[in-house]
Every structure is written in structure tokens, then in C-alpha cells.
Amino acid sequence: MTRLPIRCNFRSNSSRSRLACLRLEDRLAPATITITTIADNTNLDGKVSLREALTSANNNANLNADVVAVGAYGTEDLVFDGTLFATPQSIKLLTALPNITGDVNFKGTSAANVTVTRDGTAPAIRLFNCAISGVGTVSFSNMTLTGGSATANGAGIFAADDALTITNCVIANNVTTTRGGGISFIAGGSVTVINSTISGNSAQGGGGIYCFSTGTLIID
Fold this sequence. Notes:
Layout: E1 6-12, E2 17-23, E3 30-35, H1 50-59, E4 72-80, E5 89-93, E6 104-107, E7 114-118, E8 128-129, E9 137-141, E10 144-146, E11 149-150, E12 157-159, E13 163-167, E14 170-172, E15 175-176, E16 183-186, E17 189-194, E18 197-199, E19 209-212, E20 215-219
Parallel strand pairs: 3-4, 4-6, 5-7, 6-9, 7-10, 8-12, 9-13, 10-14, 11-15, 12-16, 13-17, 14-18, 16-19, 17-20
Antiparallel strand pairs: 1-2
């Protein structure tokens, strides 16, 4: 963690010398939490699940002794372990994940190796729900989101007035009976899709991406 709140400049002229101090913004490295298991639980087992990592990020505090965040809580990077997820792995959700309530970046290793899906025995659940107070920033990179099932908008991801970025991802085969099988966003939010595949999603309207009211969609 690095904090640099003040910069001081020494100024000199022929009549006098003066030390001037200017306040700068805080510069804190994001907290990094590494996900080290595909299990969907919060058990004390020496491993960090996606559920434990996201709950810790929401609370700005380690959920339990399994979680050791590196850096300062505020904006979190949830990183999928490079060794475990060097080969294809699936995290099968048994129940809905906690809502995303703060700025967070989900960082996988590749769309082929990191899959988040609904377990076959689970009820109909949305995979990720962004519920940040005010305008938040959420990103997903190098992962696959599939198998979401919902009776509300957005079976894969739902966001309101947040800035959502999808990079090197696959969002596929998510189903809702309303709108936005893959992604649904509303109320002035934005979605930026970079080098990603969105396919095979199903909805009453907007199978892949649904934008309600005002919003910005960028596909790169």
C-alpha cells in the first residue's frame, strides 16, 4: 500500500525561498483477493471461494481466516489462482451469490479455464447482480459466464447505472423469462464489450444484451 497525500515543492527567487505543499489524492493499490477453490461455500478450509472473496469485497473486510486481502480495501481485484485455473475449472453456484455492492474487478486466467455457472441442482438464479449505491465500476475479464437462469432481467449479469466492462469473456446459454438473457442494464449505465463472445442466450427481449431506458453500449 502506498499513500502519497502531499507533494512539496521548493521554490526560490532572489528575494526569498518558500516551501509550498500541495494536497494530492490518496493513491492506494486495490485489494487483491485470490480465489483458490472451485467449491461454493464459506467454510473455514484454508481455501478462498468466489463467494468468500465477493463477500469480503462487499464488506471491505476479510470474511474469515481463509481470506487474506493484499492491499487496501476500496476497489477490489478478485483474481482466480493461476495454478488452479491453468486448466479448465467450473465454479458451480448452489445459491445466488451476494449482490455486488462495491467497485470490483473479476480477473480470470482465460475464458476456457474459468467458468462460473449455476449448479444443476440449484434454483433459478442470476449469476451476478450489480447493486452498487450510486455509479459503480465492475469488470469481468478472461472468464465464461453460463447457465444463469432467472425470472427477472439479466440471467448472466444485471447492472443498473453502473459502468460494466467485459473483456475476453464468453457469456453464453443464460436464460430469463423477461429481458436480457446474457446482460441487462438500465438507468443510464454503460456496458463495454471487448473481444468477447455473447451467444446462445435466451430472453423474451434482448437475448444477448438488453438496455432499458437510457444507456451506452460499446462493442469493440
